[in-house]
Amino acid sequence: MAGLGEHITAMVQSHGSGDDSAFYAIALQVAAREARQGHHVLAGNIKKAVDASRQSPPRSNVTKLPQPGGDLAGLVQVTHPSSTLSDLVARPELTEQIKRVLAEQRQRETLFEYGFAPAHRLLLEGPPGTGKTMTAAIIARELSIPLFTVRLDGLLSKFMGETASKLRVIFDSVAEQRGVYLFDEIDALGGDRTGNDVGEARRILNSFLVFLEQSSPQSIVIAATNHRQILDKALFRRFDAVLTYELPDTKQAAAVVRGRLGSLAKGIKWPSLKAYADGLSHADLVKSAEDAAKRALMRNETAVTANDLILALQVRRTATLG
To answer: Structural domain of residue 30, as residue ranges?
Structure first.
């Protein structure tokens, strides 16, 4: 039988995901547990609270999350993602790398005790739409910490001193507020500076490298890029791990489409669709599945046909690959 601690953990998780039905069900389990232990008044109060809450007007599913203030305002956007590791379709090797990062973070106190730091500086590289941003969200969700997405438009300034001081503000927050800090399209900061552009841009990159190297292991700093080849070589030495993302193979593509279609995927034979999906990213496949699903639902049908998917994939290929 689940203990009170497990019930509370499950209630927090269901509340965080907005699953009211699960939240109330667990609360009633707690009430039943208290009743069995003779705490009838407490059990009755829990049941009354559940009944009263269920009769209240439904909450909006859109929750306005508090955004950072002070010097951090305008530099980061905070979210609390819902994606989990099971949502990511990727090579087994990549999934294992992510699991290793999560395991080290969950046991970071043990590592600290022996003088080691968990992996906390990650570089994610690969084509657009292959799951890099999603990975940052997954790590935040799996560790129950917020995701801070750095807004490069707010960070970069034509005055190097301003950009360096803004970087300092962000990395001060890395040390003070545990979270996942995502620098998306890091090539805007970390592009190769071996050409003529060696002035302000070089100093900005050097500032970023110093802050990254000294970053607190209490948080996870993630940099993502679609263009590994243009990154400055000095960047790679500062990261604890480099995770490489690739376009999905046939099996992964089928899993992405079926996962998005759910029960609407009845009767789809993937081999006949393989040629239309080759070269498309995970994001492209998700969009194609959504387009095909909407087409079927608007016909009042409960299953997507192969023709629906072929048309959606062709449209996406034209838009993406030309």
So the answer is: 4-55
Same domain, 192 and 237: yes
CA distance 289 to 254: 10
Three-class secondary structure assignment of 57-79: CCCCCCCCCCCCCHHHCCCEEEE
Number of other CB atoms surrounding residue 44 within 10 Å = 13
Place of tokens 């707690």: 30
**Among residues 252, 244, 303, which one has the least CA distance to residue 280?**
252
pLDDT single digits (tens) 163-181 = 788 889 999 999 999 999 9
Is the same domain home to 258 and 240?
no
Whether the pLDDT of residue 241 is over 70: the answer is: yes
271: exposed, middle or buried (Cβ count in 10 Å: 0-12, 13-18, 19+): exposed
Burial degree of 17 (CB within 10 A; 0-12, 13-18, 19+): middle
Does residue 189 belong to any structural domain of this protein?
Answer: yes
The pair of structure tokens assigned to 297 is 């639902």
Q: Is residue 63 part of a domain?
A: no
What whole-number distance in Å separates Cα of residue 37 and Cα of residue 34? 5
pLDDT at 158 over 60: no
